[in-house]
Write a structure and sequence with these properties.
With 282 residues, this protein is mainly alpha-helical. It contains eight helices and four strands.
Length: 282
């Protein structure tokens, strides 16, 4: 597969990145993380509202996701809204990973993750397994919030020609929280709350539940990817502890050069003053 075109800076966050005078590569990645942080935060808060406002008890009683289940059952409007939000985001993420985002070393794995997520969202809605989907959203979005927040602070460490120690501290704290929540939410609660309900509890209440193996295979694929990424987190922590990395940083490899990113940012940084175009450099 050919590398995708570099991610185009956003309409609002590009001027902000230029005003901050971020380093060229950081300025190219900054808009993507700002957008993702906004989406995951809104989506997770809404999912928390669904699970803990008293109307649904799926998280504390995962077996209840299949209570009164039947094919073609109506989907509550509040859960439908969550599915519409998540489904549209991940459908766009497939397109964005291929055609918009900077192609990275982990892009094939991200593309696979987005594709599996789109299948899960689509078919779980079609076959009315939406109660399970709400738990899955809750357990995954929190780690993405901390990941994007960490990356934003990493990019902000060096801006305006100075090293900002407060952003280093924020990056360190949020990165530690990211690793802890990844293990707790994705590797502990996900099997306990989701996989057990879909593989064991579902058969107790509905012995001939449709597409049993199909959905569980997709959920196991998500689990395998979570384990793979957690192994990378462990390797990253090991490099920090052994001094191979001096500090928390975004170490993802890009298939396009820094010069290309710098030219892309420079082309967006032209401003008009007294009728003359002047180039701003980062």
């Amino acid at each position: 597969m050919e590398p995708a075109a570099s991610h185009q800076p956003g309409f609002l966050d590009l001027p902000f990145a230029l005003w901050l005078e971020l380093l060229p590569r950081d300025g190219a990645k900054f808009p993507e993380s700002v957008w993702k942080l906004f989406f995951y935060t809104v989506a997770w808060i809404y999912t928390c509202y669904l699970l803990f406002n008293g109307n649904y008890n799926f998280f504390h009683d995962p077996q209840s996701v299949f209570h009164d289940w039947h094919s073609g059952m109506p989907v509550p409007l509040d859960i439908y809204a969550a599915y519409l939000l998540q489904g549209s985001f991940y459908l766009h993420s497939v397109y964005g990973t291929i055609c918009m985002d900077t192609w990275r070393r982990d892009s094939p794995m991200m593309l696979l993750h987005h594709a599996v997520t789109v299948l899960l969202v689509s078919f779980s809605y079609a076959f009315r397994y939406h109660n399970v989907g709400i738990i899955v959203f809750f357990l995954h979005d929190i780690t993405d919030i901390l990941l994007e927040f960490s990356k934003i602070n990493i990019y902000l460490k060096q801006h305006g020609g100075q090293y900002q120690h407060i952003y280093k501290l924020l990056a360190d704290v949020s990165s530690a929280g990211f690793g802890v929540t990844w293990f707790l939410f994705r590797l502990y609660w996900f099997p306990l709350k989701v996989l057990y309900a879909t593989s064991v509890s579902s058969l107790k209440s509905h012995p001939v539940i449709p597409f049993y193996f199909f959905f569980n295979i997709l959920l196991l694929a998500i689990t395998a990817m979570n384990l793979y990424w957690f192994s990378l987190i462990i390797m990253f922590v090991f490099k920090i502890m052994t001094g191979q990395l001096a500090e928390v940083a975004d170490t993802r490899e890009y298939d396009i050069s820094t010069q290309t990113q710098q030219e892309s940012l420079a082309s967006h940084s032209k401003t008009q003053s007294n009728g003359d175009l002047k180039d701003k450099t980062l």
